[in-house]
Automatic annotation (TrEMBL), chain A:
NCBIfam families: malonate_beta, PRK07189.1. The keyword Lyase applies. Its EC number is 4.1.1.88. This is Biotin-independent malonate decarboxylase subunit beta. The keyword Lyase applies. It comes from Methylorubrum zatmanii. Residues 1-249 form the CoA carboxyltransferase N-terminal domain. InterPro entries: AccD/PCCB (IPR051047), AcCoA_carboxyl_beta (IPR034733), ClpP/crotonase-like_dom_sf (IPR029045), COA_CT_N (IPR011762), Malonate_beta (IPR017556).
UniProtKB/TrEMBL annotation, chain B:
The lineage of its organism: Bacteria, Pseudomonadati, Pseudomonadota, Alphaproteobacteria, Hyphomicrobiales. It comes from the Bacteria. This is Biotin-independent malonate decarboxylase subunit gamma. Signal peptide: none annotated. Gene3D superfamilies: 2-enoyl-CoA Hydratase, Chain A, domain 1. GO terms for molecular function: lyase activity. It comes from Methylorubrum zatmanii. Its EC number is 4.1.1.88. The keyword Phosphoprotein does not apply. Keywords: Lyase.
Length: 310, 243
């Protein structure tokens, strides 16, 4: 039993996913009081490496894993804390997620939920983080092959960058909010390596258009779009558990086709607004300001953004 | 070490003395050759080439072709790449999906009974490394290979630590420093091959000794490069219960 961090009476379900801590997200996402953490902060399994860099550690290394219930369904959950080291994958952080996925192979829950909030690999533990990401991706495909859906939820301040973006695209289904960016190279990384002409990281509108939740949902990079509330993420996760694609040759052949078609159709586009225009959006410039309801209406009118090819 | 890196043509002629159909186009390696009475499929990246959406898609298509054949042909993933291609276009098109897709095709091939072996003979980094060599069942390296997540000057910039201090730390801290030996100690690279012994025999031996499970965290503990990962993962499995 964990203490309820969100008080539904005072804050209601309108608690912002983006603003919430990883623990508050888990707490609001799952059935009240159902979360049972494994290797909790009281065990102080901290990074053995950060002291070398004179950096502070977290008792949970920025990764919270455990089990709980989602509308009565038994689920395993992992949540990254983006406010600690940008949610980056270090040795302990990554190993907790690897362990969770391996436990799922044994326990066969009704779903595994991964609450992403990460800048990618933690550079101070880069080799351990990168290897853990590879282990996580292998484990996710095994869990999916065993018939357990793996649902990614992306709406934290650190987004899902670097290896986090690759793990996300290995999941069965993804929920994303407007604030949930998904990308491999971050804006600053592209600018540092290729110059501001290639990507101006200070142009926040460009960042959202290129990597943000609306663009990913419109182009099939995510399967559901959620308001920035814990309740909306809960509803979307529940919906996606019931319709997760298998991990098999047919799915990957369909994904191959989907990704080839995307390249053929949009490969010469310079900006997301061009892609949205080609998708059939009448007023692409208006998309960033659309409310969730208006965006959902737009999605329904396009009719081709939902697929089983992941 | 002053030994020159083994080149892709050297690797291919060592693997396939009778000839092969492996070609390199835009740095993307693809083809196959006769191997132990059957075939060995090869995909890869050559010439320190960055992996973008186009390349990942082409390599994934090659892997799926092998899987569709369904004859258990082993797949060698030969890598001398840059990192992921860093560009606005690649991210606009969803590079994370393309790289993950390539990794998934390799993981699917493995699940379908195709032994997958990574061979790093040059550089590789970050997303390109995860999408290719690190998505195989077992990864081996040749001396002179230089996998990294990020080079030390970049690490110095991000961590705001002086480069000379990082270089000193790198000598006995395998968890963050670039290089093949550190990736071996982390468990990501299973073994370094001997360039003076026949390569085909060594690859055949690797295929014959494929680990059944993902043993990279155990290797990391035994070799000291990832001291706690295996223990943490095992404890999670042990303590987890469905509520």
């Amino acid at each position: 039993m964990s203490e309820r961090i969100i008080d539904p009476a005072s804050k209601g379900w309108a608690t912002s996913w983006y603003e919430a801590s990883a623990r508050a997200r888990i707490d609001g996402l799952l059935d009240a009081g159902s979360f049972r953490e494994v290797i909790g902060p009281e065990q102080r399994r901290m990074s053995p490496h950060l002291p070398l860099f004179d950096l502070p550690r977290a008792f949970d290394d920025g990764m919270i894993v455990g089990s709980g219930r989602l509308d009565g369904k038994a689920v395993l959950v992992a949540a990254q804390e983006g406010r600690f080291m940008g949610g980056a994958f270090g040795e302990v952080h990554g190993a907790k997620l690897v362990g969770l996925l391996r436990a799922a192979l044994v326990l066969k829950p009704e779903a595994v939920l991964i609450l992403f909030d990460t800048g990618g690999v933690r550079l101070q533990e880069a080799n351990a983080g990168e290897t853990a990401i590879a282990e996580v991706m292998r484990a996710i495909t095994q869990v999916r092959s065993a018939g357990v859906p793996v649902i990614g939820l992306i709406g934290g301040r650190a987004g899902a960058y670097g290896g986090g973006g690759l793990i996300a695209a290995t999941c069965s289904r993804l929920v994303v909010s407007e604030g949930g960016r998904i990308s491999v190279s971050g804006p600053e990384v592209i600018e540092t390596n290729k110059g501001a002409e290639e990507f101006d990281s200070r142009d926040r509108a460009l960042v959202w258009r290129t990597m943000g939740g609306k663009h990913r949902r419109l182009t099939g990079g995510a399967d559901a779009y959620a308001d920035d509330t814990v309740q909306a993420f809960r509803r979307a996760a529940l919906d996606l558990i019931g319709r997760a694609p298998a991990f098999d040759l047919a799915t990957l052949e369909a994904e191959q086709k989907r990704l080839e078609e995307r390249m053929a159709r949009f490969g010469d586009c310079r900006d997301a607004t061009e892609i949205w225009g080609r998708l059939g959006v009448n007023d692409p410039e208006a998309v960033p300001a659309l409310t969730t309801a208006a965006f959902e209406t737009l999605l329904a009118s396009l009719g081709e953004t939902t697929h089983d090819a992941r | 070490m002053t030994r020159a890196n083994t080149t892709l043509p050297e690797i291919l002629s060592a693997l396939f003395p009778e000839g092969h159909s492996v070609t390199v186009e835009d740095g993307l390696v693809s083809g196959e050759g006769p191997f132990r009475g059957g075939r060995l499929a090869v995909i890869g990246i050559d010439g320190d080439t960055a992996l973008g959406v186009d390349g990942a898609c082409r390599l994934a298509a090659d892997v799926l072709d092998v899987v569709r054949r369904g004859d258990g042909t082993p797949i060698l993933v030969a890598i001398d790449s840059d990192s992921q291609r860093m560009s606005r276009r690649d991210e606009l098109l969803g590079l994370n999906e393309y790289l993950a897709h390539l990794a998934k095709t390799l993981l699917l091939a493995d699940a379908h009974g195709h032994p997958t072996v990574g061979l790093i003979y040059g550089h590789s980094a970050a997303g390109a490394f995860i999408a290719t060599a690190l998505a195989t069942r077992v990864l081996v390296g040749l001396p002179g290979a230089n996998p990294s997540v990020m080079d030390l000057p970049s690490v110095a910039r991000v961590t705001k630590l002086p480069l000379d201090r990082l270089e000193a730390m790198a000598k006995d801290t395998p968890v963050f420093a670039p290089g093949l030996d550190n990736m071996v100690r982390t468990g990501a690279v299973e073994a370094v091959l001997d360039p003076d012994r026949p390569l085909a025999e060594q690859i055949a031996a690797v295929i014959d000794a494929l680990p059944v499970e993902d043993t990279r965290d155990r290797a990391g503990r035994e070799r000291g490069g990832r001291p706690v990962a295996e223990t943490i993962a095992a404890q999670v499995i042990r303590d987890m219960r469905l509520g």
